[in-house]
Amino acid sequence: MRPCGTFDERYSQDMAILRIKRHWGILIGALIFLYTFPLYGSYYLISLLNSLSITIIIVLGLQLVSGYCGQISFGQAAFMAIGAYTSAILTGKVGLSFFLALPLSGIVAGLIGLGGGAPSLRIKGFYLAMATIAIHFVVMWLILHLQITGTTQGLHPPAPRIAGFEFDSDEKIYYIIITVMLLMVYGARNMVRTRVGRAFVAIRDNDLAAEVMGIELYHYKLLAFFISCFYAGVAGSLWAHWIQMVHPEQFTLLHALNYIGMLIVGGVGSIPGVFFGVIFLRLLDEGVMFIAPFLASMFPWIGIHPAASMGVSVFGLVLILFLIFEPRGLAHRWEIFKASYRLYPFSH
Amino acid sequence: MKEFLQLAIPGLMIGGLYALVAAAIVLVYKSTRVVSLAHGQLLAFGGLFLWVALVALRLPLLIGLLISLACSMLMGWLVERITLRLLIGQPLISAFLMTFSVFMALDGIFQLILKGESKTYATLLPLGEFEVAGVPVGSVQLISFGIVLFIFLLLTLFFRLTKTGLGMRATAEDHQLSQSTGIKVKTIFSLIWIISAMVASVAGMGAAYVMDIHFPLPYIGIKGLIVALFGGLDSLPGALLAGLILGVAENVFAGYLDPLVGGGLKDVAAYALLLIILLVKPYGLFGLKRIERV
User: Fold this and answer.
1) pTM for the whole thing?
2) Are the Cβ atoms of A123 and B282 closer than 8 angstroms?
3) Chain B partners of A123 at a C-beta cutoff of 8 Å?
4) Which of A234, A295, B101, B257 lies in disulfide reach of A106, CB 3.0 to 4.6 Å?
5) Do A144 and B278 touch (CB under 8 A)?
6) What pLDDT, on a 0 to 100 scale, did the predictor assign at position B122?
7) Is A133 on the interface with B (CB under 8 A)?
8) What span, in angstroms and rounded, lies between the C-alpha atoms of A150 and A157?
9) How far apart are the first and last CA of chain A?
10) Nearest CA to CA, how far is A311 from chain B (Å)?
C-alpha cells in the first residue's frame, strides 16, 4: 500500500526495497546503532543480541523451507548441530581458520540436509514433519556415539582469530554475528523475490499445480532444504564459536519446536515476521525467567525451579492463542499498522 | 532361540502399549483428518490421574481406575472443545500445529506437577510371574496385553456394528456430505476425542506401570505416532500389527546391537525404521493411498 501522491516512474523504483529517503535514513541509523552498540550496551544486552541474531538466522532458514516452500521441518536444531560440530572439528582438529569454516559448515549442513529433504518428494505435510523428527533423532544419536564429535563430552572450538586479533569475548564476536546476520537477512529478503522464491511459494500453495506449471518439484524442494540447512549450519557455526563449547544438550527437539513456534508467532511467509517471532518469544522467555522466582515464593506448591516448565507452558499457550486469534502472526499486524500509518489521515 | 524370545516377548508387551497409543491417534485421524501430537500428554496425564487416585488419595483400585478414566475423558473433550473446534475449516496443517501447541502447554504443566521426581504405583498392583515359552513374564504385563487386545476388538466392533461408528466412518470420508445426511459432525468430533483420550489414558496407565511416571512419559506419544504412520494412519489393524512389530524390533535390535555400538539404540531404532518406511511405503502398511487433484 503506497501513500497518496507516491508514483513510481521506473520499474527499478517499484522493485526497490528502500524506496524513499526516509527508508535509507532508518537503515543507516539502525546500522550505526547496531555497530556502536557494544560501546554503551550492557553485557547482558550484548549477549542477548548475540543469541537473538543467531536464532534469527536459524528461523530465517526455517521460514524459507516451511514458510515459503511449505515443507514443515522439525529438524532445524539437528542441522544447527551439524553446522556447529563441523565448524568445531574444522577449526579445532583440522586447524582451518574460522572464516573458512563458517561457510564450509553451512555447506556441509546443507549437503546433509539434502538427504533430509529426500523424503519430501514422496511425502508431505505431517508425514514430512514426522520424517524430519526422525532425522533429528538419528542425527543426534550419531553425534552422541561417534568418536569424532567427542560423544557426551562435546567439543571446545577455539575463538575466531584473524591476523593475531582474537574474537574471544561477547563484545568482540558480536560484530561477526551481527554482520553475518545482516548478510543472511539480505540474502533471504532478496531470494524470495526471485524466480526461486516464487517457485517456492507456488509449491507451498499447491505442489501439483506448481508441477503442471513447469516447476521441477524435486529440484526446488531439495533446493529449499539445502538453503534452510545452510542457514542452520552457519548459525550453528557462529553459536559454537561464540559459546566455545558444543554439546548435544544444546540441540534438543525442544529447540527445534521453539523455532517452529517462532515461525507461527511471527507469521508464516514473511521475512520481517522472523524478527517479530524470535524477539517476541525470546522476550516472553526472559519475562518468565524473571517472574518465575516471584511466583515460586508466592505459591510454594509449584516448586523451587518452575522457570523451565513454566516457559514451556507459556510457549504452548501463546501458540494456541496465536493459532486461534492471529493465524497470520505478528507480521500481519505490522502490515495493518504500516498501511494505516501511510494512509493517515485518510483511511482508504 | 531362547535369547531371542527373552528379548521378543517383553517387546511384544511394550508393543501392545504402543499399539494402543497408535489406535488413539488413528481414531482421531479416521474421523477428523487431524494428526495429533497431543495424545502424548493425554496418556501421560492418564498415568498421572491414576497415580493421584491410587497413591495420593488412596482410593480402591477399581474406583480409582474409573475416576481417572473419567478425568482423562474430560480432558480429551476439553482439548477438542477449547482448541481444535475453533480450527474447523482451517488448513489441516494448522490443526496439526495446534495439537503440537497443546502438547507443549500440557508438557509444562506435567513437568510442573512432577517437579523432576518420578512417581510409581507399580507396587500397588498384584504381582506374579508366568512362564510364556520358557520366558518369565509379569502377570500385570500379561493382563495389560490382554486388555490391549480386548480394546482393539471393542473398537473394531464399535466401528463395524453401531450407528455412531457408522457415522464416524462417514464423517471421515467427507465432513460436509455427512453433515447434510443428518450426522452431527461436531458431536462426532467430541465423541471421538473422548474415546481416544480414554484409549490413550489406558495406554498411559500401562506405560506408567512399566516405566514409572517420569518426564519422558509424554514422548511415548511420538512413538505412537510412528506406529500409526507405520501401520497406515487410517487403519486400526495396521496400528496393532505395527505396534507389535515396533515393540519387538526395538527390543531385539537393542539387545543384539547395543553392545556393538555402545547403547542407546533402542530409542533411535524406531526413528530409523520410520524413515525407511516413509521412503518405501509412504502410506504405511494398510493405509489408504490418497489421490489428489489440483
Assistant:
1) 0.88
2) yes
3) 278, 282
4) A234
5) no
6) 64
7) yes
8) 12
9) 10
10) 7
Least confident of A23-37, A179-193, A243-257, B261-275: B261-275
Residues A105 and A83: their CA atoms lie apart, in Å, by 5
Helix/strand/coil for A231: helix
**Residue A177 backbone phi and psi in degrees, to 5:** -65, -45
> Does B111 sit within 8 Å of A126, measured CB to CB?
no
CB pair distance less than 8 Å for A320 and B92: no
Read off the pLDDT band of A196 (50, 70, 90): very high
Displacement of CA B279 from its chain's centroid (Å): 23
Cα–Cα dist A111/A106, whole Å: 9
Taking the Cβ of residue A152 and every Cβ of chain B, the question of whether any pair is shorter than 8 Å is answered with no
Task: Provide the percentage of residues in chain A whose pLDDT is more than 90.
Answer: 37
Q: Are B42 and B200 in contact (CB under 8 A)?
A: yes
How many residues can be counted in chain B? 294
Cα A296 to its chain centre, rounded Å, is 32
pLDDT band at B126, cuts 50/70/90?
low
For an interface test with B, give the residue of A71, A130, A211 to mutate (most B CBs within 10 A).
A130
What ipTM goes with this model? 0.85
Chain B contact set for A152 (CB, 8 A): none
